[in-house]
Design goal:
The structure is a single chain. With 162 residues, the protein is of the alpha+beta class. It has a single domain (4-159), classed as Gcn5-related N-acetyltransferase (GNAT) (Aminopeptidase), CATH 3.40.630.30. Helix content is 28%, strand content 28%. It has helices spanning 16-24, 40-51, 103-117, 133-141, and strands at 4-6, 9-13, 61-66, 74-78, 87-94, 123-129, 145-149, 153-159. It has an 8-stranded mixed sheet with strand order 1-2-3-4-5-6-8-7. α1 (16-24) packs antiparallel against α2 (40-51). The longest helix is centred in the C-terminal third of the chain and has 15 residues, at 103-117.
């Protein structure tokens, strides 16, 4: 799969070899990681990708790479392929130095583009910590609606038109 070019970023699909380096937090000579990458939140999805017995295809993990720096500042991706009812769940995050530049909004827009490109996706789900207003705004800017909240999290959904 090739890079997705969205606004000022590239979403670069992770290979299993790259995912193993991210999961271990040990860059190879070819890696260009921003200070603070990978975050603890990047390791889990990458470890799941490495352990997967089936290639997730477009519903895997992507690196967020601003074209201005060429450095990996975060990751975005899917928790797995669409369910039988057509639902997917996404996650995303970046190093703090990359916040406030629109990269998160662009990354989520790219994941939505993936969903539109492959038939069968009816709903995109996401959640944020209750206090993470910036992440909630990222989802709202991409058309997500808040569907519920708990004492710790807000849950969002984006219904896709078939």
């Amino acid at each position: 799969m090739e890079n997705l070019k969205i606004k000022a970023i590239d979403l670069r699909p992770l290979t299993r070899h790259e995912a193993s380096r991210v999961a271990a937090g040990k860059p190879g000579g070819q890696d260009n990681w921003a200070e603070g990458f990978p975050r603890a939140e990047d390791s889990g999805p990458c470890a799941r990708l490495v352990a997967a017995t089936v290639d997730p295809g477009p519903f895997g993990v992507y690196l967020i790479v601003p074209r201005s720096s060429g450095q990996v500042v975060g990751s975005a991706g899917f928790y797995g392929p669409p369910s039988e009812s057509g639902e997917v769940t996404i996650g995303y995050g970046m190093v703090e130095s990359a916040w406030g530049n629109g990269y998160g909004t662009a990354a989520v827009a790219g994941l939505i583009e993936v969903c539109h490109a492959y038939s069968g996706v009816t709903t995109v789900n996401a959640d944020t910590d209750l206090e993470n207003i910036a992440s909630q705004r990222v989802l709202e800017k991409n058309g997500f609606e808040r569907v519920r909240a708990t004492e710790t999290h807000c849950y969002f959904a984006l219904k896709l038109v078939a």
